[in-house]
Predict the structure.
Amino acid sequence: MLVLCGVLGVLQYRWIDESSRAESMRLRGSLQGSLTRLSADFNATLINSCSLFLPRVFPPDASSVPPSPMSLYRRWRESTQHEGLFSAIGVVRVEGDHLTLHLLDLQTGDERVSEWPESWGSMRRYLEERLTILREGREGQGRPGGRFRPPNLDDGFLLEFPVRGRPDPDARQAPEWYVFEVSESYIRKTLLPELLNHHIGSGLADYQVEVVSRHRPQQILFRSPDQDLPAIGEASDASVFLFDAPWDLVFRRNAPPGIREALRNRPAPPPTGRLELRVRHRSGSLDAVVAKTRTRNLLVTGAILFLMLGAAAALASYARRAQRLATLQMNFVAGVSHELRTPLAVIRTAAYNLRGKLAQNPAQVEKYGALIQKESERLTTIVEDVLKFASQNSKHARFQFEPLSMESLIDASVAASQPAIEAAQVTVDRKIQPGLPLVHGDPIALQHAIQNLINNALKYGAGEQKWIGISAAPDGERFVEVRVSDRGPGIPQEEIGSLFDPFFRGQRAMEDQIHGTGLGLALVKGIVEAHSGSVAVSSQPGRLTEFAIRLPAAGPGISQDFTQ
Ligand code: ATP
Ligand code: MG
């Protein structure tokens, strides 16, 4: 069973370990998936909005005149769900050698020439460089300011697209660009909360979320309300880049189906973005959560194994006990039948003799009569013991409690055992301490218990020493102790634990064929415990074997405790 539990424990441990690892990977994967979808949604919001301003044909017709920015803006305002998405929209036009910026009024859509804001400096430099490249016809030779430049982190929240939808407009036309400035506060207050709710939903309560600008990573743009939690930094469970509206995706949106198909086969651009969204579990990390669950699972399975082991041990001990009891009962049956048969045989023989010639001899009559009396008394004792034990076990044991003097109880017990004492020629050393307190008890039952101990001392311990001792003394203020001792061969250590078991008989008692049923001490224990007392034994073979009965004194407050 122990080996089985050990193997089970190892298997459980491995299984929990593997399932924890799988669970950790599953949680990470599902979180990363949600973030990827969120990022795609975020970018789609930008792409859809910007593409509305750009030509609806692909490839754009170089000769067509694009609709006015004002009309496009108004159309966008009517159709969009993200009205606050842009904090500024500019049209950049070439005037002479300069690029002039026309900002749209976000209420009316009207254009007005404006100074270049300071934060647009990097965008302005890029467009000027681009203009030079277009004028010199250097397109495609070098990359600075090339057609599909990767996002420039310095541009912050600015996105630029050629108004005619072609990065290299017809040489006859002056290039023009739209520059969109995405509103940081809209992202923070509206777009991100909306997308987080949609993609992570109720699970959001378990996570700490942070969005940083990749340009300035220490600047946290958005964070879930966890003021007391430290910044996530690099220690995220999952992260994704946001804010990416690549040129070809914006134009692909406006392409007719055939061309859109063709474009779709182009390899997807690598994930880029100006922002980074980081997510971490509130308890530190997903690994920490899984580790906690793992520990809990290990504890639970450990406890179950422990319980199983305990139950198996209890079962084994119960089975052992039951087996021992069965053996004892078999011995008892054998012993009792022997114990009954012997006196019966003696009585039968004596009776037979009495009916014959011997009956005329008074001395012989007296002898056989005494024999019959002695053997029938023995029979009575055996039957009484068995009946007492049966009634004690059937829980119908009734005791008549009354105040008792221990001294007279001991005297009565010695007197009842007198014939046996005389027959064994034993000296009884009687030491009763004067002024013993009374005890509350059943006189017949208690006398039977003491007599049993005296008989055992006579049977097993009086032997060569021809001595038994009986003493009684107070034990503290609340108990009286009666000791019955002998100086016989004593009780082997390994038998002490079983001595009070019903039907138990010692090795020596059986070898020496000393009469007995093995019920005496079980009866003593039952009687004493019914009086709220206890019985103990100590044995130093050859020196002193002592049985001590400890009974509560009938002091005030105690007597009621066990008076029934
Ligand atoms: P009975 O039912 O007739 O009393 P018993 O004497 O064998 O039979 P118990 O009184 O229960 O049964 O005693 C159990 C066993 O304890 C005895 O068989 C004996 O081996 C051992 N024993 C009891 N008292 C003593 C003693 N004073 N010295 C040595 N062994 C003892
Ligand atoms: Mg006995």
The first strand starts at residue 86 and ends at 95.
